[in-house]
Write a structure and sequence with these properties.
The complex is a heterodimer. By secondary structure, chain A is α/β, with parallel strands linked by helices. Chain A folds into two domains: 246 residues, UDP-N-acetylmuramoyl-L-alanine:D-glutamate ligase (3-Layer(aba) Sandwich); 141 residues, Mur ligase, C-terminal domain (Protein-Tyrosine Phosphatase, Chain A, Alpha-Beta Complex). Chain A is built from 15 helices and 17 strands. In chain A, the strands form three sheets. Chain A has a nine-stranded mixed β-sheet, sandwiched between helices. In chain A, strands 12-13-17-14-15-16 form a six-stranded mixed β-sheet, sandwiched between helices. Chain A has a two-stranded antiparallel sheet with strand order 7-8. In chain A, strand 12 and strand 13 form a beta hairpin. In chain B, helix 1 packs across helix 5. Classes of the chains: A alpha/beta, B alpha/beta. At the A-B interface, helix 13 of A face helix 1, helix 2, strand 7 and helix 6 of B. Chain B: This is Lipid II isoglutaminyl synthase (glutamine-hydrolyzing) subunit GatD.
Chain lengths: 460, 249
């Protein structure tokens, strides 16, 4: 063991302790310091882990990795997981150091690591994973990532270099993700959805990969499940969606409360009654199921463990406050927001809505994306609307042009004041649906905690 | 009264919320009882240059831009040049702006030929110019009242655009990079052809500019039209918020 590594671990543990005492989250800083002291720290910390899984994609990383680690834990496997949401290498290092002794070893059997899209190359080369799960690729934080194409290129460079004993688990319905399976030696498993009833009538405006990545010709979609995800083929060069061997079908939405579906895998079939809503979450579930099977978990045990699963913070989480309910749905990019709207407003009932838009670095400093979201679908479906966050003015302007009038007294940059106002207006038993961007979600969590409202996830 | 809009390459060239410009043009016309017709013009489609009063051309990714450049040369260039000559209004943003110029020179490979109705050229650079952008509008293109004098948005480009003699800048940079980060100019205007790097999107937060485009586009067929004033409090709040944010970041 390098002296440097021990120094790095000691320093990080000290910083973590210090931050925790003073009330900080300590999800990134200890890792950042450890990486400065020993740049090889991530490889050293993961070297002795028997199995390692990396999960990436624009949307659903957090939920997919939480579902997978729930399944693994339920089956008695000790997992280590960067569940607090810092998905750059420093966040992973922080988690690993917290769970390791000074000699960089932990008792975990499997590491489940959620990794930022742009960080995938670095994470793969340092962690050397056994399994990589890729969910999807959508426009997101373009001020930070540049173009979605750049992410696609980075991913394909990583996958081309993988050895044949790695398993990659790809979404067959996303043309950009499925294409990654065509030029790799790694073992490739495809997951997807097979349910015609779920198809949209047309591609949403915010669809990114609508041309064939092989010849450039426009793809033909027989079914469109969400954004550019669906059943596609290229009439020019013959490229088509690989048939998924792990898929969800016979899907029924139960609004914000969840959905039911049947899952098919080569190892067996089962029904699920998911407490997390929306088609996007079925993708997350089937991705996690595929990963669990590839790690050797039996289908019947997966089925049992899924009954236990609760939402991650802010991902369709329901909370109670003074006799009123709040539902929090993180909404951070056009496709995510479109799908959350589709899920929450599935039924006809008008709803009370609170939108919180920030433009800090973790949100994306460009709020242009609000105009790629189909807010027009909310017309006639909202009752009262409140708007807050650093870009409240942009949000209320967007709603005006979607024919949704927001009373100017309901627009307030201060999130806490705005929440108070909304809750005061709500009658007992009514529900407020909150849609925050990422940093707005963190603000909200802090405010709710000060009101002594906490969700299931917050204790761990 | 009615306005005919051609939306160029809505599938290929609309990655940064540029659709907001179309939504804004439509709403601001309909709120004044002006009918709007929008035709989406994709790869392979021909343009009837007699039909349209206003053309909108948004921004896209490099891969799309290559295909669009080819399509422009092959199918659309002649008609777009004719439309510009006949004083149709063009609004182009980012990639669309670059392609209405003479060419875009990438760091590797061949030049992407543009339409050439803006006397500008663009070259790739190693700096990505990203952030809130605030400019003071060039008074030369303002024909009526234009209040506020600022235009606000968000830029995200690595191409550096340089103006030739026939084009004037849309404005001067107060905050941000603008055309090239060197000469303080942002955007270009030449007759009724406008181009700039302002996403945000541009028109919702700059209603005065949206109205200038609508008025100019209508004037060709309907003479000097007076547009009814709209209550723009939300628009101007967002305009001011963008200026505020540009100062704090």
């Amino acid at each position: 063991m390098f002296a440097k590594t021990i120094t790095a671990i000691t320093a990080a543990k000290t910083v973590r302790l210090f931050l925790r005492i003073f009330g900080g989250g300590a999800t990134a800083a200890p890792g950042l310091i450890a990486e400065r002291i020993d740049p090889t720290i991530l490889s050293r910390l993961t070297f002795r882990l028997p199995k390692k899984v990396i999960i990436t994609g624009t949307n659903g990383k957090t939920t997919t990795s939480r579902i997978l680690s729930t399944i693994l834990s339920f089956n008695g496997i000790k997992t280590i997981h960067n569940r607090e949401g810092s998905n750059l290498t420093r966040g992973i290092v922080s988690t690993l150091i917290e769970k390791s002794n000074l000699l960089a070893s932990s008792e975990a059997d499997i590491g489940v690591f959620e990794v930022d899209e742009a960080t995938l190359p670095e994470a793969v080369s340092k962690i050397n994973p056994d399994v990589i799960v890729i969910n999807n690729l959508f426009r997101d934080q373009l001020d930070r990532y540049g173009e979605v194409d750049k992410i696609y290129k980075r991913w394909s460079e990583v996958l081309v270099g993988l050895p044949s004993n790695t398993t990659i688990i790809l979404n067959s319905d996303d043309p950009s993700v499925a294409e990654l399976g065509n030029s790799t030696k790694a073992k490739t498993l495809y997951f997807g959805i097979e349910d015609e009833k779920m198809s949209l009538l047309r591609l949403p405006h915010a669809s990114d990969f609508i041309s064939c990545l092989s010849c450039g010709y426009e793809l033909k979609f027989d079914h469109i499940y969400l954004s550019h995800l669906g059943k596609y083929l290229c009439n020019n060069c013959g490229l088509k969606r690989p048939k998924p061997t792990y898929f969800a079908h016979s899907i029924k939405f139960l609004g914000s409360e969840g959905s039911v579906a049947k899952i098919n895998t080569p190892q067996g079939r089962f029904d699920i009654s998911a407490q997390i809503p929306g088609l996007y979450n079925l993708y997350n579930i089937i991705a996690a199921v595929t990963a669990a099977i590839s790690l050797g978990i039996k289908v019947e045990n997966i089925e049992k463990s899924l009954r236990d699963y609760k939402s991650a913070f802010g991902r369709a989480e329901k909370l109670e406050i003074n006799g009123k309910s709040i539902f929090v749905f993180l909404a951070k990019n056009p496709t995510g927001f479109n799908e959350v709207i589709r899920t929450v407003f599935w039924d006809k009932e008008r709803k009370n809505v609170f939108l919180i838009i920030n433009d800090l670095i973790a949100d994306g400093t460009d709020v242009s994306w609000l105009w790629d979201v189909d807010f027009e679908l909310l017309k006639h479906k909202v009752d009262q609307v409140w708007v807050s966050g650093l870009r409240a003015a942009d949000m209320s302007l967007r709603l005006k042009y979607a024919d949704i009038a927001v009373d100017s007294s309901n627009v307030n940059e201060d999130i806490e004041e705005s929440l108070e106002q909304a809750l005061k207006k709500l009658k007992t038993g009514e529900t407020l649906y909150i849609f925050p961007t990422y940093t707005a979600l963190l603000n909200l969590q802090k405010i709710l905690r000060s009101k002594k409202v906490t969700g299931a996830f917050w204790e761990n | 009264m009615n306005l005919n809009i051609a939306w160029l390459y809505p599938k290929q060239m609309s990655t940064y919320g540029d659709r907001g410009n179309i939504i804004t043009l439509v709403k601001r016309c309909r709120w004044r009882n002006i009918d709007v017709n929008i035709d989406e013009i994709d790869l392979g489609d021909k343009i009837d240059s007699k039909k349209y009063d206003l053309y909108f051309f948004g921004g896209g990714q490099d891969r799309s831009q290559i295909k669009v450049s080819e399509d422009l040369q092959k199918i659309k260039r002649g008609d777009l040049v004719r439309a510009a000559d006949e004083d149709a209004v063009f609004l182009s943003i980012c990639g669309g702006y670059q392609l209405l110029g003479h060419y875009y020179q990438p760091s590797h490979g061949n030049k992407l030929e543009g339409v050439g109705i803006l006397d500008v050229v663009t070259r790739a650079s190693n700096t990505r110019m990203i952030g809130n952008l605030v400019i003071k509008a060039n008074k030369d293109f303002i024909r009526n009242k234009f209040n506020p004098l600022t235009l606000v948005g968000f830029e995200n480009h690595s191409g550096k655009t340089y103006l030739g003699k026939k084009a004037s800048p849309l404005g001067l940079v107060e905050k941000g990079f603008g055309n090239n980060g060197e000469d303080k100019t942002e955007g270009a205007v030449q007759r009724n052809v406008f181009g700039c790097y302002l996403h945000g999107p541009l028109l919702p937060k700059n209603p005065h500019f949206a109205d200038l485009l609508i008025k100019t586009a209508l004037s060709k067929r309907f003479g000097d039209v007076e547009l009814k004033n709209l209550k723009d409090s939300e628009e101007l709040l967002a305009h001011d918020a963008a200026i505020q944010r540009s100062r704090s970041v």
